Amino acid sequence: MSAIGSLLFCTDCGNLLQNSSADPTNFLFCDVCGARNKDAAPGTVISESKPSAFPSSLRAKRSAVQTLTAEDRKTEAIAQHTCAKCGRKEMYFSAVQLRSADEGSTIFYRCVCGYKETTNN
Ligand SMILES: [Zn+2]
Ligand SMILES: [Zn+2]
After folding, report:
1. Interatomic CA distance for residues 43 and 46, integer angstroms
2. Could you tell me the keywords of this UniProt record (predicted)?
3. How far is the CA of 3 from the centre of ligand 1 (A)?
4. What is the whole-number distance in angstroms between the Cα of residue 36 and the centre of ligand 1?
5. Quick check: pTM over 0.70?
6. Residue 59 lies in a domain
7. Residue 87 CA: which ligand is closest?
8. Which of 41, 104, 109, 114 has a CB 3.0–4.6 Å from the CB of 121, allowing a cystine?
9. Which residues pair with 38 in a beta bridge?
């Protein structure tokens, strides 16, 4: 093990702990705050605090994306269009302008059964 790998820090105040024996059953007492720290591998101590700090911002981003997709689905309207597969008389539809404006738009029908249909105006 390298010298850096054997460094241990107090989980309470971050003070560098002396006399690490790298023995997980041993306890080290912090010189600064007196907290009892397990004399374990430093990786276990460091990884305890980090994951909670970053994923919270990642989670916030992900929920923003989910809000967007939820609003996208709201733009789907229900049309009086019979599903060719299950016979339902209502299908979700959304119109997309795929080509130039004077050629009209493409309408996508979507049934709750999974059937999809595309119509060009
Ligand atoms: Zn301490
Ligand atoms: Zn259907």
Report:
1. 5
2. DNA-directed RNA polymerase, Metal-binding, Nucleus, Transcription, Zinc, Zinc-finger
3. 21
4. 8
5. no
6. no
7. 2
8. 104
9. 27
The answer as to whether 108 is a domain residue is yes
Structure tokens belonging to residue 107: 């309408």
Known binding residues: 10, 13, 30, 33, 83, 86, 111, 113
**Measured in angstroms, how far is the CA atom of residue 82 from the centroid of ligand 2?**
8
pLDDT of 58 reads 58
From CA 110, how far away is CA 115, in angstroms rounded? 6
> Is 94 within the bounds of a domain?
yes
- Domain interval for residue 94: 74-120
The model's pLDDT over 80-119, given as tens digits with 9 standing for 90+, comes to: 999 999 999 999 988 877 666 677 778 889 999 999 999 8
3, part of any domain: yes
Task: Report H helices in 1-121.
Answer: 42-53, 55-74
Ligand nearest, relative to CA of residue 81: 2
